[in-house]
Design goal:
single chain; 208 residues; alpha/beta; 6-stranded parallel sheet; binds adenosine-5'-diphosphate; binds magnesium ion; CobQ/CobB/MinD/ParA_Nub-bd_dom; DNA_Partitioning_ATPase; AAA family ATPase
Length: 208
């Protein structure tokens, strides 16, 4: 069982959206996927309730419940994706500690990038492999992505090669309890998510 934790101190950078999109991509790839929603705001859980499909399974978990939830998932789930709350929390360290891979979504804005070092330190403290994922990039401004990569590199970290651009389909999908791939499989937003998942899958050496 593989565990991906999605963490970033800054709110609104796309943690929950990324958790859901990757979970659907992995499920479509044949994996049994569990989203553990550790955010008290429960946006992933509420999305799960809006859905009709039975995959991914979405379960809320407190920090205290986490070991038990992971034990229950073992054998049943091929992939667990943990969504964490923003701000300083006790949930994020617990979720990072159990992760095989940590993803830190960030928008290209300075307000987000300024918050990254704290989350990076957390991952390094637990010795966890970590990648930044640039999200909500301007679709018509490639220079912005290049600059953002440079800022992330200067922090001693790396951004995933696949970038998610700002696309309305992400919001529309969320409202319908869907992911972008389910909302419009031919959209650029869907292609980006599929490419990101393929890269993560290879990076984590998850076999078919
Ligand atoms: N790539 C994207 N393009 C456009 N909107 C996005 C994108 N990613 C996320 N969003 C939107 O941004 C808002 C915040 O995303 P969310 O996943 O809830 O962030 P977080 O969990 O980090 O607080 C949501 O309305 C979501 O639909
Ligand atoms: Mg969230």
């Amino acid at each position: 069982m593989h565990i991906i934790t999605i963490a970033m101190q800054k709110g609104g950078v796309g943690k929950s959206t990324l958790a859901r999109s990757l979970a659907v991509a992995a499920a479509r790839d044949g994996l049994a996927v569990l989203i553990l929603d550790m955010d008290a705001q429960q946006s992933a859980s509420q999305w799960g309730e809006r859905r009709e499909a039975d995959m991914p399974v979405v379960v809320f978990s407190t920090e205290n419940d986490l070991p038990k939830r992971l034990e229950q998932a073992r054998g049943a789930a091929g992939l667990v994706i943990i969504d964490t709350p923003p701000a300083r929390s006790t949930e994020a360290p617990a979720a990072v500690e159990v992760a095989d891979l940590v993803l830190i979504p960030t928008t290209p804005d300075v307000e987000s990038l300024e918050q990254m070092p704290r989350t990076l330190r957390l991952c390094r403290g637990f010795g966890r492999p970590v990648w930044a994922v640039i999200n909500m990039a301007n679709p018509t401004g490639p220079a912005e992505v290049a600059q953002t990569r440079e800022v992330i590199r200067a922090m001693g970290a790396q951004a995933a090669p696949v970038v998610l651009h700002r696309r309305k389909a992400h919001r529309d999908a969320s409202a319908s309890g869907l992911s972008v791939q389910e909302m419009d499989g031919a959209s650029k937003a869907a292609d980006e998510v599929t490419d990101l998942w393929a890269w993560i899958r290879a990076e984590m050496q998850i076999r078919h």
